[in-house]
């Protein structure tokens, strides 16, 4: 998993015209890794049963394995929910809030949710991100006069505290660290 995430963070760095190691270094040498298994029991009326409410992942990169035969994951695309059906031998990669902050908004953390289906569905998510002592702020190379910093610097523990406090609500903590634009 570390090798895969290392490769992904190197590709994301390249996409931002940064040195290959840049994102990996900013996420830190001792990343926080968390594994979560999601179990969605079969639902007779999936339209009425939400599995996991809309959210963005609070970490940096999420790698998700979905069980075959049941669709459930959805992402917002052009203001509509779009199903991300499981493909054989494929993993889903989601960018999380820390990538949005580090990239100064160039990459967006994806709004997603999971709905139930008529058959049992299981997913396994590996969340990879900075540990709680890591300081996070937009990467300097991505900040200039035309792109002022969109977020203030924070300690990852501060971010996670906000995220946990939002339990049961829209869980989107990064807005709290957003720098307000001052009208000229
Ligand atoms: O079950 C899924 O496909 C989505 C899981 C998810 O978004 C999460 O665990 O954060
Ligand atoms: Fe998620």
UniProtKB/TrEMBL annotation:
Keyword Metal-binding appears in the UniProt entry: yes
The UniProt record lists the keyword Iron: yes
Gene Ontology terms, MF aspect: metal ion binding
Database matches in InterPro entries: IPNS-like_FE2OG_OXY (IPR044861), IPNS-like_sf (IPR027443), Oxoglu/Fe-dep_dioxygenase_dom (IPR005123), Plant_2OG-oxidoreductases (IPR050295)
Gene3D superfamilies linked: B-lactam Antibiotic, Isopenicillin N Synthase, Chain
SUPFAM superfamilies xrefs: Clavaminate synthase-like
Domain Fe2OG dioxygenase span(s) in chain numbering: 31-130
UniProt keywords, alphabetically: Iron, Metal-binding
Protein name, UniProt field: Fe2OG dioxygenase domain-containing protein
